[in-house]
């Protein structure tokens, strides 16, 4: 339970096309509440992830997620999380990586 902070960098080797700039940086923070609600069955969770790529002139991509973790629903020893996500940044979809997008979504995730 609690707070987790992470960060790191990356480099693309043998990029195609060769003109693709190779450097990336990522950081973020995750929060899992130490408190539960609904008689211990539900735990609030939230996260912010920041990514930036040299290829996109270091524009920051922001992903914000928030929702609940179901404490008594486990598959392969993993908790199920139901989250709302907001994303603002360059498209994560392959060939469209230079296009700026905003989206709001719902997701079911298994917390590893």
Summarize the structure.
With 112 residues, this protein is mainly β. 0% of the residues lie in helices and 65% in strands. It is built from no helices and six strands.
Overall SS class: mainly beta
User: How many whole angstroms does the radius of gyration measure?
Assistant: 17 Å
Low-confidence stretches: none
How many distinct helices?
Answer: 0
| Biggest sheet architecture | 6 strands, antiparallel
The N- to C-terminal Cα distance equals 13 Å
- Care to count the β-strands? 6
Average pLDDT across residues? 90
Strand-and-helix sequence, N→C?
Answer: EEEEEE
Q: Indicate the overall shape.
A: elongated
Strand order of the largest sheet: 1-2-3-4-5-6
> What oligomeric state do these chains adopt?
single chain
How does this model look, in words?
The protein has strands spanning 2-11, 23-32, 42-53, 60-75, 78-90, 100-111. With 112 residues, it is mainly β. A six-stranded antiparallel β-sheet has the order 1-2-3-4-5-6, with no helix packed on it.
Any descriptors?
112 residues, mainly beta
SSE diagram, text form:
Elements: E1 2-11, E2 23-32, E3 42-53, E4 60-75, E5 78-90, E6 100-111
